[in-house]
Amino acid sequence: MPAPIRFITLSRAFCSLQGRLLLGLAATWLVIVGLLLALAWLFGKDLVNETNLSHLRYEARLVAEGLNDEVTQRQDALIRLAEQLNEAPAEELGERLRDGQALLAWFEGIMVTDRQGTVIADWPVVEGRVGLETRNTEYFPMVRHTRFPYVSEPFVGRASGESMVLMLVPRLDEHGEFLGMVGGMVNLERSRLFRGLESIRLGEGGNVGVFTASGERLFPASVGDSAEDATEWRASPQLSMALDGWQGEVVVEGSGRASALVAFRQIWPANWVVGVTLPDSQVYAPLGDFLRKLWWVWLGVALLLLVSIGWLVRRLLTPLHHLEAQIAQVGSGQRRYLELATQMDELRQVADTFNRLEGERLAALTDLRDREAFLDAVLASTPVGMFVADLDGRLTYMNPALRELLGLSETPLASDWWQRIHPDDRVGTQDLWRHTLHTGSDFMRQLRYLDDREGTLWLEVHASQVRGNGQPLGFVGMAKDITERRQQEALQRWEAEHDPLTGLLNRRGFERRLEEALAECTKTGTPSVLILFDLDHFKPINDEGGHALGDEMLRRVAQVVAWEVRRSDHVARQGGDEFAVLLPSCTLKQAVRIAASLRQAVSEVEVKQGARTYRVTLSAGLAALHEQDATIEAVLARADDAGYRAKAKGRNAVVVSATGGSSPGDMQEDVDALFR
């Protein structure tokens, strides 16, 4: 049989009642099987995730503990060496380093600096190393001020050309005075530090990564790695959390890359992060194989069931073939009514019911056409933009006024109309429209429409259901341009919550956002910090330079403060020279660093009048939001009290509120250390 004839025969078979019953049975079976497979996949996926996350937790802990031991041993060795060197004269330091030859099993080289950061001895001797200045490096100020061991950011060695880090410890005399540093250079590519990680096997796709707190990758060594692999690690959103101190395990959903299971652990002595990852292709492969086998079993059962039911349906539906043929003739216009000669009462009842409904349908169709003609005339003559939609929500008509408003030459397709609605308003509008279709209630919504001529229009759309003889016929609606009104409302809202001089939030707008942050803290425990500060030495600017110069200083301070904080933070001018900064989702430790940067930035702001230059500083108080805070007044009071104490310390200071336990006090020590 030719292929076209076989295709037509199959099409007719599936258009019959028998074919539809069989097709419906097959579809039902496929849906059931699909649901069962989906449920098996979901529950199996959770079980597989739990098992593999436990495995990753174990692996990450082993890696972290091993690296902790390696780093601690090296730091302890450097501390012992520093204690020995403290007793030696400067001219004997090189000889003492040679006596510590055993340390070269751990380090590529050893160096010693004086209290100013100048290298005064090294071993093995590298030409040009003695005399190097380290005072401007990122590690010298850290060791000098903290007096704790520190591991530097990775750098490329001058002699080897390979990636290295410096492990540094301070040299202190018997009074605790800083004498310099002792540093050991670790080759990241050839040392034993990461050698144990190279033997770890996590399947074909799993891997281990080690990062510094700044996000620089240490293992696999960053020098020579592929850019694609490095980018994949940096794209992990959980890596950013781990760099801030978080550790744990999580399933990372793919966003432009494959999903994976990831575990992070902290290497606290070196301020490093260990990441262990397994791709989902490796994790879910056994579960997928099992479900594929199960699918083929169920498919075989479905085929046997279809053959059996098909034979039974053919026997039962034989009397209906004549009825089916006449219904098809009525549908194609070959006859107007059914005329069955049969002894089956059921078939005669079906035929009578069909004929009655067909007569009612023809009458309703005629009436509907008359109504459509009348409606077309009314809508075409009205100056208001109006449209007509069917019961499925498809636009069937737009009057000339609406097409002119939207810049259209003809009624658009339904898909074109929805695509021209602004993406931020599209989903909500579609949900409300579906609700209107389902309930028959009125549709009322303000939305943005993308107009090719003028950009974005604000429209107010109102649609109502039209009914005839108690039955819904469709929807008729109107659209009005409210762009100018919306723009005016937006301007009024902005002016109500912003300071006209600086463009920052005013007290009203800031307190609303503070209340929202307090509600979030109370509900979910999200940490947030409030900073209140005013400007020191601001009054002379107004008194000597005038209010115009004072206003210029306020504007410049507002600019640098807004530049220094994060995009998610809120900056406000409370009045006069008083400012406030709200740091949502921010720890007190992070807030201290931000306050330090604000203090430095504000101290660099200056205004001039003639030959006179004016500068200001700030006195700031920090207060963390607590879950037990009932109102924002409690938070404001703590921050305000801390600000008064900053003034009392001599201005140009940052004070952390003492309320909330010992942690703020410890944080105040960090603040004082930053400003020393």
TrEMBL record:
Keyword terms, alphabetized: Membrane, Transmembrane, Transmembrane helix
Transmembrane segments: 21-43, 295-313
SUPFAM superfamilies xrefs: Nucleotide cyclase, PYP-like sensor domain (PAS domain)
InterPro entries according to UniProt: DGC-Regulatory_Protein, GGDEF_dom, HAMP_dom, Nucleotide_cyclase, PAC, PAS, PAS-like_dom_sf, PAS_4
Cellular component, GO, one term: membrane
HAMP domain: residues covered: 314-367
Any single Pfam family the record assigns to this protein: PAS_4
Claim: Isomerase is one of the keywords in the record: no
PAS domain segment(s): 371-440
BP term (GO), one: signal transduction
An example molecular function term from Gene Ontology annotations: catalytic activity
Requisite cofactors: Mg(2+)
Record carries keyword Membrane: yes
All residue ranges annotated as the GGDEF domain in the record: 526-659
Protein name (record): PAS domain S-box-containing protein/diguanylate cyclase (GGDEF) domain-containing protein
Organism in which the protein naturally occurs: Billgrantia gudaonensis
